[in-house]
Amino acid sequence: MPKFDVSKADLERLVGKEFSVEEWEDLFLYAKCELDDVWEENGEIYFKADSKDTNRPDLWSAEGIARQIRFALGLEKGLPKYEVEKSDVTVYVDEKLKEIRPYGVYAIVEGLSLDEEALKQMINLQEKVALTFGRRRREVAIGIFDFDRVKPPIYYRAAEKTEKFVPLGFDEELTLEEILERHEKGREYGHLIRDKPYYPLLVDSEGKVLSMPPIINSEITGRVTTETKNVFVDVTGWDLDKIMLALNVVVTALAERGGRIKSVKVVYPDFEIETPDLTPKEFEVELDYIKRLTGLELGDEDIKNLLERMMYQVELTDGKAKLLYPAFRDDIMHARDVLEDVLIAYGYNEIEPEEPELAVQGRGDKFVEFEDAVRELMVGFGLQEVMTFNLTNREAQYGKMRIEAGRDYSMPPPGELVEIENPISPKWSALRVWLTPSLLDFLAQNTHEEYPQRIFEVGKVTLIDESRETKTVSESKLAVALAHPRVTFTEAKEILESVMRHLGFEYVLEEIEHPSFIEGRVGRIVVDGKVIGIIGEIHPAVLENWGIEMPVAAFELFLRPLYREPYL
């Protein structure tokens, strides 16, 4: 989760009130943050804020926290309003960037008065949004420039790798290729563009370079100081909606510092847009849903008041709340998201806990007991249990396993992945659809250990199910992997045979072709005419992808079709 430092005095200037350190501990909760640390430096108190929501980049700076607190305390109510004045500035986007880094959105903010703390917060917000929300600049990269040094119109174009400019922090010109090799940011982020035929460049009408997205700004235009009054904001990436949200977050934060927002016309080869677009977003929620799930005695006007304190414009009609909410938010996807805001405004600490009066006794879930029994069975066969993460990524589930998403391999899923929209790390960007890659990853991390390695996991996978409200279903599976120099299909089959015999099921193996397994040594597992799993020897190319030098035999099957009482 994002962590960042804020000055107590700066926060209080932005809120318009002073508070004790103890009061700030509670106030941070309104902004979905926790006060992680407090210290004094040069006579001034600083806080380390620990954000608990990766979907609210608008709360990752002093400006966003202060804005949220002003509204939560009722100092302001309803929808924050930001005027956007139209400028005569145009940015032209090069068609050659379509397969390199296709989109850019822009804005101008004038009339700023930046002190050192404001400058620090601007840089912090820029970095945190690009790092976390922007997936380490892959999806979102942000540049902020001294607009008084820029001569419009501006061009976002594809550049030859031999072109030169002075990157931020240097005093000499470097070619674009040299920047990737010599500059700290070039070495860190160069992999995002290194293999492209051209590199992105943002230049003005006089040919002055503003930046090389997503790597580094120019020393000439990209150094913003306390003397800077007017800035030009640039956000680039692959998803127009995502970079537009990032732009909205940055420009409204600067507006909280007194800046005046101006729009920029962006001309693409096949369309034009004006950015930023701060048009409020719409949502509708049933009032009875809020009342029922909060468990609080709230009237319609109470709900309206609480939502207005969370920056909503509210219209009550026919038992519903019709809502407008700020364009710098993109986290309202379900009524429960609105419900959360109601509870934040009410105050979690103000809710009195009640012990439920139940006329029933709790007991263990029978299927969970079945899963535990399967675990004990596998341990009895001499296998070691492992527990791996449900979160994974597309490359692990598909790429390294030599399969394509959604393709029918005559076996149960893997189907299409459920991917996380704003993951903290690309490594943990999806929910897994099968366990075998997780076991191979475990073996890859333990190549230094002695063989044989005989492991299993009873774990969950997440599959797409359009018939459900969440569009997904969680299924329990058993996976086994055996690794040693003489491992064979037969050894894996012997364990499968023992599992089926102990569970009281007969099964059939049907030979199939599957890219993850060696041809002629792979089959699907069929019980009562239904395909429930797969067994085989892992293909050498898959083992090479994982860095495993030992042969591996594996099987994987769904447990739900094998559940019946008594189960052992």
UniProtKB/TrEMBL annotation:
<dbReference type="Pfam" id="PF03483">
    <property type="entry name" value="B3_4"/>
</dbReference>
<dbReference type="InterPro" id="IPR022918">
    <property type="entry name" value="Phe_tRNA_ligase_beta2_arc"/>
</dbReference>
<dbReference type="Pfam" id="PF03484">
    <property type="entry name" value="B5"/>
</dbReference>
<keyword id="KW-0460">Magnesium</keyword>
<keyword id="KW-0963">Cytoplasm</keyword>
<dbReference type="InterPro" id="IPR009061">
    <property type="entry name" value="DNA-bd_dom_put_sf"/>
</dbReference>
<dbReference type="Pfam" id="PF17759">
    <property type="entry name" value="tRNA_synthFbeta"/>
</dbReference>
<dbReference type="InterPro" id="IPR041616">
    <property type="entry name" value="PheRS_beta_core"/>
</dbReference>
<keyword id="KW-0547">Nucleotide-binding</keyword>
<feature type="binding site">
    <location>
        <position position="340"/>
    </location>
    <ligand>
        <name>Mg(2+)</name>
    </ligand>
</feature>
<dbReference type="GO" id="GO:0000287">
    <property type="term" value="F:magnesium ion binding"/>
</dbReference>
<dbReference type="InterPro" id="IPR045060">
    <property type="entry name" value="Phe-tRNA-ligase_IIc_bsu"/>
</dbReference>
<dbReference type="InterPro" id="IPR004531">
    <property type="entry name" value="Phe-tRNA-synth_IIc_bsu_arc_euk"/>
</dbReference>
<dbReference type="InterPro" id="IPR020825">
    <property type="entry name" value="Phe-tRNA_synthase-like_B3/B4"/>
</dbReference>
<comment type="subunit">
    <text>Tetramer of two alpha and two beta subunits.</text>
</comment>
<dbReference type="GO" id="GO:0004826">
    <property type="term" value="F:phenylalanine-tRNA ligase activity"/>
</dbReference>
<feature type="binding site">
    <location>
        <position position="337"/>
    </location>
    <ligand>
        <name>Mg(2+)</name>
    </ligand>
</feature>
<dbReference type="GO" id="GO:0006432">
    <property type="term" value="P:phenylalanyl-tRNA aminoacylation"/>
</dbReference>
<keyword id="KW-0479">Metal-binding</keyword>
<comment type="similarity">
    <text>Belongs to the phenylalanyl-tRNA synthetase beta subunit family. Type 2 subfamily.</text>
</comment>
<dbReference type="GO" id="GO:0009328">
    <property type="term" value="C:phenylalanine-tRNA ligase complex"/>
</dbReference>
<dbReference type="InterPro" id="IPR045864">
    <property type="entry name" value="aa-tRNA-synth_II/BPL/LPL"/>
</dbReference>
<feature type="binding site">
    <location>
        <position position="341"/>
    </location>
    <ligand>
        <name>Mg(2+)</name>
    </ligand>
</feature>
<dbReference type="GO" id="GO:0003723">
    <property type="term" value="F:RNA binding"/>
</dbReference>
<keyword id="KW-0030">Aminoacyl-tRNA synthetase</keyword>
<dbReference type="InterPro" id="IPR005147">
    <property type="entry name" value="tRNA_synthase_B5-dom"/>
</dbReference>
<keyword id="KW-0067">ATP-binding</keyword>
<dbReference type="GO" id="GO:0005524">
    <property type="term" value="F:ATP binding"/>
</dbReference>
<keyword id="KW-0648">Protein biosynthesis</keyword>
<keyword id="KW-0436">Ligase</keyword>
<protein>
    <recommendedName>
        <fullName>Phenylalanine--tRNA ligase beta subunit</fullName>
        <ecNumber>6.1.1.20</ecNumber>
    </recommendedName>
</protein>
<feature type="domain" description="B5">
    <location>
        <begin position="278"/>
        <end position="353"/>
    </location>
</feature>
<dbReference type="InterPro" id="IPR005146">
    <property type="entry name" value="B3/B4_tRNA-bd"/>
</dbReference>
<feature type="binding site">
    <location>
        <position position="331"/>
    </location>
    <ligand>
        <name>Mg(2+)</name>
    </ligand>
</feature>
